[in-house]
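Problem 12. The chain below contains 311 residues. Write out its predicted structure in token notation.
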Amino acid sequence: MLTVVEPDVRDAFFDEIYRIGAADPQVVFLTADMDAFSLRKFKQDFPKRFINAGVAEQNMICVASGLAASGKKVFVYGINTFVSMRCFEQIKINICSMKLPVVIIGAGAGFSFGHDGPTHHGTQDVAVMRALPEMEIWNPADAVSAAACAKLSARSKSPLYIRLDKGKFPSFYSASEDVSSGFKILKPLKKINILSTGYMTQQAMRAAEELKGKGMDTGVVDVLRLKPLSEKLIDALARSSEKIVTLEEHCLSGGLGSILCESLADRSVRLPVTRLGIPDRQFLAYGNREWFHETNGLDVPGICKAVQKIK
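Solution.
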């Protein structure tokens, strides 16, 4: 039975960052003029360790790399598209080449900022960040896993990117749960299994319930860590699956579907994969998240229809 967790996903994440910062004076937080309710307490209580770089994301990354090189544990926070694409060269050279443990937080996964238009559609960030050899990528699906990602990122010794959503969602994880494997089987594996990540895990669970009512039982796996994808997960899928569906709020080029297909090919595992995601084109449109999902077959009826077509 799913329960709604009170905190917004962002608040759960930043509340944990506050606790980490309160215990460790080496923690520094940088923001590109981005706010979140639970960030205000960090700014108020640790003003010398909170830096608003303004709308200057590339400069923020340069400052972050300097602080990290001097021994600070640095978190940077900005709009998904800006911190991944606008700052790619700075991240590649200043952070990844130096293997500095900077945590990059990209807000606005997928179409969660849909009303802000194409500049804010976070649909290519995973493809961009996974091209960097040193980069690890996490994408939490609920408030509990978001807080767990904050804890894990604080202990990371390498660059790390967190794709952060917003809103209050049903929780799939418990507070005491170990998420270090990077995935969780939410519904037991069947012949057809849905692999989803981030907000789309919410959609996957709803779709699985509808499909079950129509006599089609599917497994559901939440992929919390996109890079590196767990080898244990690949082994489990190879043993149990006849067909796999990947579901993501990201373009089909370079996201979860691409990651899974590459991983299966590298291990010589032959499994049919149906990829559900955002078509490989520009979306020069404005609207709410639900409209974008319905338009692209990523709403629950669209997902069910696609899965039912699998023979």
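Discussion. The mean pLDDT is 95. Students who got a different answer should revisit the alignment rule from Section 12.3.
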